[in-house]
Amino acid sequence: MGYSLTYQPLTTQEKVGSGSLVGDGVPPVMSVSSKPVLFSALFTSLYTPLAQQLPREPMEWRRSCGRAPKMIHLEANFVQFKEELLPKEGNKALLTFPFLHIYWTDCCDTEVYKASVRDNMMRWQGNLRLHGSADWVIVVVETSDAKKKNKTNILPRSSLVDKIRNDFCNKHNDRCVVLSDPLKNSSRSQESWSAFLLKLRTLLLMSFTQNLGRFEEDMRTLREKRNQPGWSFCDYFMVQEELAFVFEMLQQFEDALLQYDELDALFTQYVLNFGAGDAANWLGSFCSPVKSWTGLLLRRPIDMEKRDGIQRGQASLLELRSYLFCRQCTLLIFLQRPWEVTQRALELLHNCVQELCLLEVSMMEGALDCWVFLSCLEVLHRIEGCCDQAQLEANVSHTVGLWAYATDKLKSLGYMCGLVSEKGPLSLELNRTVDLLAGLEDEKAETVHSLQSPYKKLKEALSSVEAFERHYLELSHAAVEMYTAIGRMRSARLIGKSLAEFYMRKGDPEQAESFLQNALRSYVSEGWSLPVTHTRKQMAECQKLLGKTENYLQTSALLAGDANLTNEERIHFCQEILTFANQSTDSKGKQPVALSMSSFAQLKQLQFRPATATVHSGTALQVELCLRSLMPVAVPLEQLAASVHLNLEQGETNGKTRGPQRRPYPGTVLFPLGNSSAMPPSAAGPSLELEEIQDRSSSDPRTLNSTGMVCKNTHLVMRRHDSSPSPDMPNLVSPVPVVMDDGAKMLMSGDVTVLPGNNSIVFSSQELGTYTLRQLCATVGQVQFVLPHISPLVQYEVYSQEPQLTVEPLTDQLLAGLPQRAKVRLQTGHYTVKKGDALQLTNIDSMPILTSSSCPATILNSTRVDESVLFIQSSDKVTSISLPPTPPYHTLEFQLEVLCVIPSDPVRPENQRLTNGEIHYRPRSYSHPDNHMAAINQRMSVDCPWSIYSTPISLTFYIPFKAKHSLLSAGNSKQSQSVYCVWDVRWKENMPVCLQCVFSASFSSASEEVSAFKPYHYEFQLERVTTLYSVRAEIMPAAGQQNCHSGSLCGLEMSITRLAEPDDDEEDGGTEEKGQTETEEVCSTKLMYEVAGSSWVVYGRSSGLVSMPADANANHRVQVELMPLFAGHLPFPDIKVFKYLPPSANSASQPDTDGCVENDILSLMDRPLDDQGDTASFCSQGSVHSVGSGEQQSRVLPMPRLEPFSPGQVFNHSQGCQVLVLPSTDDHVLEINAT
Fold first, then answer.
1. Which of 680, 690, 490, 485 is nearest to 602 (CA)?
2. Where is the composition biased (Low complexity) (predicted)?
3. CA pseudo-torsion sign 131, 135, 140, 141
4. Which of 1036, 1033, 1051 is nearest to 1132 (CA)?
5. In what order do the strands lie in the sheet with 1134-1141?
6. How many CB atoms lie within 10 A of CB 364?
7. Are 1028 and 1114 in contact (CB under 8 A)?
8. Neighbour-count burial of 562, counting CB atoms closer than 10 A to its CB (0-12 exposed, 13-18 middle, 19+ buried)
9. pTM (2 decimals)?
10. Cβ distance 920 to 912 under 8 Å?
């Protein structure tokens, strides 16, 4: 006996796990009915482990078309085989399709098999073949109890199975499976059971894959026929949804969601085509009027009511969309993507509104708002049910859109039902409320026990004015807080603006003001023109109700100049201002209302006449303003005034044009214009102040490592505009008070009519000073329009100049000794030169004025030039110049001829003297930087008729000659060189101590005649020119060498010879010495020598004292060791000889700074330490210690002194001599010094 069980999926049912909805699959249920009680009991015992263990192990599911394999768990539903369960032709149902047919038998007797079991199997297979089902399997169950009962008639199990395989499974041997003792726990039974489960999973997956592929192909074929007549979207919807159910049964939620997304996209495309004129016939069923607006229902995995309506083709557009989104929401929650539900929900609600308009679906007024409101809250409640509070707070950005949309729809319903008016709803509005509530139908069973269900909230909100206000404010404030928390300030301001409208409808403008203020500030800072205009209109209404006159007038002025409004609206707001101004003129004593001028007019251009913006006193300066009126009508002004500020630091002017920060071209200043329809120029924020920065290499400044730009005003650019309003922004609800500066000077123009567009207004100013334009004020009755700051800075100057007298040379240089012409320029300033006025010049002997009786003069001003004549009279002390009459602020110019006498003996400082041509001469002023000519400053005083004080005049003359002399010596022979001439100086036996000399020459200008020669004298004197000492030096190589070698020591023998006996002067200098050497038998003179050379190194003493007898031809020899540093012809070392004056009390207490040369001693101290060792002979006397012991000690202890000899008194015969120095024996280094 055998029985057939068929595997097929059941209808879907909800499966709950882990506290949340995790799947809406099609779990299998085993259902079996068996005729024999024994087998029925056996299969019933197998059902539970079979249903539990079949989905336990995953199977790899490989699909066609290159889709990625997936691991799935198979769940099955077992039902008893019935012929009516087999699929009929044309039946595309996938959920009720039997994927695998199983024949169960426990027959072990051959006779029984032949008598009944084989026939049943044949009939079973015949039915399967008749319906085209090729997926089957025969299960032979072997039990030990059956063997015991039929021991005599049973065949070996292998023989019976072979018989079944031969009869039914010739081509498919794997279709016959043996299950041994499934109820026992033996190893053989477990192995047989595992093999059976694996076989069952494999066959089931193969059958499912094949049938699913055929189903998908049939579905695609059906979709391709969508353009044919008679095609129905609802039929196709049910087919593709079956595929989605199958994927959901396999827990392939992504694939199931894809099916619903394709259906969504397909339906949306048809709706868009309908709106474009391409209408499908089946869309007519969705265009029927909507009679129910219950909203989304997401608490059911499958809304069977709406699904049945779709299946019958009787669903409305909202029902189709609701069911489709419900299925998408369920799958998204299975996929742990709840925030995508909120995003899709918002898109769905907006799209449904558009689709209803495209399909022209008729709905009761307000029904769509009810549906949207209920749907928003349903989605939010569904998300709250599957997420905790922390997740909700962290993902406010995903849900805030639904809160805002629900708030907007509830507000619309409140307006529609008369719940936002001061008087309450009318009868018509009450009837509309009843009809709307009737369309909600009865509350669903899933939400009937929920106190915060969307249905209850809407019904309560529409029941009374107080309940509506409570719910609306609750939703609005929640949305504002959420938008603020996530930084979406624009959206928060928009809801706040909606709240302001609500309060205005309720007659509470005070509550509405703050919301409008925040919204307006945000719109202005971001430059939204139209929202600014609309919000200002609401602000004007609010301010008028609150009685805030100044703010209302300011807002009216802004609206009157707003180009976004119609001309009638602008005129209305302008008349509001003029009406208030005319009413206020009757009431005296009231303070005028100050408003910002940027809402009334804009300053475009300012022009000065003259263009320099600088005039002298007595002349009117004109300032022309170009004012662009923003008003739609002509506005009569009582006065237009410009406030000016006197610059104190420039109060005393001298006629120079100052400081206006100025202008694109001379005389004109252009002002930037803002967009008055949206906001003032300052609302756009400050401009960027950028500066380049460079990073250069520290080793090589020419190498640039990096460069960039830095913003210098980041604190202004990055400032949040909401929290720091500018005083120049008149668009705020509470503008900063704008007032004129108290006590400021004004430029006024009265009775001015300002027309729409550009207007020209002219001001005049004659007051002395440098002024800065600060403010502009237009007065209309008791209303003042004030421009608080004029930017950029604009200045003008009215000056009063004192007369100025200057004398300038006509050439680059004035030469002494020749007649020179100088230009005299008199700037009259505010003084008027009258007839008889004269300049009195004081004559000086060194610079006479070469005058004539008359002299031409020129009178100039900015526009013309006049010629005149002036007269000159000269006396011994004064030269008088009569001036022609000259108006103020003119320039009088004429020329004078002067002569500077060249001094024959230039003045020298007292501590310098002229000796033997060594002229320590410094000119009185300076030398010319180009030719080093000596300069002479000549000063004279001029008495002017406009001042009681004399005016000093200074002229600098340059001496065109540079004369100097020098003394040349060759032993006892003397020559004097002066001005490129050489004279041989000879004298008799008695040579004078001082010889006076004069050099004379004549000169003239190259352009003058020879008869105009003028003399030039150069005086000098010669003193102490006798040669007193001669110095000879000889360099000798080291012993055994013929020549000197570099790096080797050589010997220097120096001979000092006295050529003449000491004269009186020398004896006077040696008096002190004689007093200190009384014990010496012979009188002597102490000399100090010093040997130095850059090519030589001195070993031992480089300086020392020599005592020279007073006899003529006395000689003293000194030997010094030195070493040459280089090879070649080296010059002899320098040998210097000084007078050595021993220390004395008189010299210590009264040092003779003129005769004593202490610097020479100090020069020895300044040398390096190596050289200081060479001065041992000098240091031994304590002089160096005395010099370096400090200032206080030098005043107490006497100090030795050195005095140099005059030029020519010491003759060095070795000066200019050279000695041959050979290189050292080192062959690797060769140094040659060529001199």
1. 680
2. 676-687
3. negative
4. 1033
5. 1103-1109, 1084-1092, 1134-1141, 1201-1204
6. 16
7. no
8. buried
9. 0.59
10. yes
Sort 910 into a burial class: Cβ within 10 Å, 0-12 / 13-18 / 19+: exposed
Q: CA 1123, 1127, 1128: angle at the middle one, nearest 5? A: 120
| DSSP 8-state assignment for residue 1113 | T
Dist. CA 523–CA 537, nearest whole Å: 14
**Model confidence pLDDT, tens digit, residues 131-148:** 877 788 888 888 776 555
d(CA 856, CA 669): 43
How many Å apart are CA 886 and CA 207, to the nearest integer?
125
Q: What's at 781, amino acid-wise?
A: G
pLDDT tens readout for residues 992-1016: 777 788 888 888 877 776 667 778 8
Q: What is the largest CA-CA distance in the chain?
A: 184
pLDDT digits (tens, 9 = 90+) for 517-572: 999 998 888 888 999 999 999 999 999 999 999 999 999 999 999 999 999 999 99
Q: How far is residue 785's CA from residue 738's CA, in Å, rounded to a whole number?
A: 9
Residue 1195, pLDDT score: 52
- Residue pair 597/785 in contact (Cβ under 8 Å)? The answer is yes
> CB–CB of 29/48 below 8 Å?
no
Q: Which two tokens stand for residue 582?
A: 């005319």
Q: Which tokens hold the place of 393?
A: 């707070």
Question: What mean pLDDT is predicted for residues 105-119?
Answer: 82
What pairing do the DSSP bridges indicate for beta strands 601-609 and 668-670?
Answer: antiparallel
Query: 650 is written with which tokens?
Result: 């420039």
Q: What is the DSSP string of 678-714?
A: T--GGGG-PPP-EEEEEEE-SS-TT-EEEEEEEETTH
CB 620 within 8 Å of CB 805: no
Computed from CA positions of residues 576, 581, 586, 592, in that sequence, does the dihedral angle turn out positive or negative?
positive
Compute the half-sphere exposure of residue 912: CA atoms within 13 Å on the CB side of its CA.
12
pLDDT of residue 502: 92
Nearest Cα to Cα of residue 7 among 74, 89, 107: 74
Reduced to 3 states, what is the DSSP secondary structure of residue 930?
A: coil
